[in-house]
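Researcher: Please predict.
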Amino acid sequence: MLKVNTSRFGEIEVDENNVVHFANGIPAFEGENEFVILPYDQESPYYFMQSLKSPDLAFLLTIPFLFFPDYTFEIDDETVKELDIKNQENVVYYSMITIPNGSIRYMTANLLAPIVLNTDNMRAKQVVLEKSNYTTKHRLFPEQKKEG
């Protein structure tokens, strides 16, 4: 077990088998290569991706298909090879979430750059989709139209 200091969760113990490895980090955080994904709680659709290197760095994630059932894309051959994906059933997709001004009702998901995780080997990559109509800011909770 690894002991990891975090600013959000205090000191946590992480099974080395649960460490997510990003060979080249993630965009804008290229020096961050190891994370652990922690559920927000058992009933929640949210997760924290906590850096093992930087105690203050944690990203909020969700599985995009829970909020966007029609979300579709293809992973390029280079990513399949890089992550050594042999079985699609062992791949998990996440989207990073932004909470503008701390307002949960305006949360957005980055559908343009999903995180692809091969759970067979815990290799991951944030993939920027090419030729896509998706953006980095899809509202999780669309505004309700007022009747009347």
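Model: DSSP finds one helix and eleven strands in the chain.
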